[in-house]
Amino acid sequence: MNLTYYGQSCFSVEVNGKKLLFDPFITYNPLAKDIDKKEIKADYIFLSHGHTDHFADAFELAQQTGAVCVAAAEVADWLGNKGIEKVHPLNHGGPVSFDFGKVRAVNAIHSSSFPDGSYAGNPLGFVFTTSEGDFYYSGDTALTMDMQLIPRWAKLKFAVLPIGGNFTMDVTDAIAASDFINCNNIVGVHYNTFDLIKIDKEKAVEEFKAAGKNLLLPAIGDTIEV
């Protein structure tokens, strides 16, 4: 599978001929100024919660791509009420089948609200099981014991975890999370976009390496094989 990073927690994964886009936040991210949104393709847009830095470009890119938006019921309803016809609401529970594989919504310890402050449902992570391999996107979350359930459902090739701290896990907690989920191949997100989540990238990579793990930090716009 190939993963393309667009900054903050926005990335896409190609799996079984489908393009999955996650938490689009490009327009208001100065670090992503060289990304041309018009070139972004998506068959599905997964939204972990309603905060602006995960949601800002969701409506525009859903219109542009015609993608199915997959999110908590409240987020899906919000998009539907704005005129997005292709939505799939879900919540914590059993896996949901799509044409590329199965998706299970899992717990994320965070908050979720729309830009106007209204309730945006539960924050979510997503576990993907596919014929090309399994992967996990945690969304914004603290370290939680619930992550220990994930190996019951999937044998992960890689996981996408926040590492910036302050609002989410930091590097140390992300290393612990990789133990919980039984996955040593981690793509780090949600760091360096603004001062409160700035990290030392080289130090983070070394800390993962010392723990026997691989931390991937692709540059914005780069595509890597995972």
UniProtKB/TrEMBL annotation:
InterPro entries: Metallo-B-lactamas, RibonucZ/Hydroxyglut_hydro, UPF0173, UPF0173_UPF0282_UlaG_hydrolase. SUPFAM superfamilies: Metallo-hydrolase/oxidoreductase. Keywords: Hydrolase. GO terms for molecular function: hydrolase activity. It holds the Pfam family Lactamase_B_2. Residues 7-190 form the Metallo-beta-lactamase domain. Belongs to the UPF0173 family. PANTHER family: UPF0173 METAL-DEPENDENT HYDROLASE MJ1163, UPF0173 METAL-DEPENDENT HYDROLASE MJ1163-RELATED. This is UPF0173 metal-dependent hydrolase SAMN05444277_1087. It comes from Parafilimonas terrae.
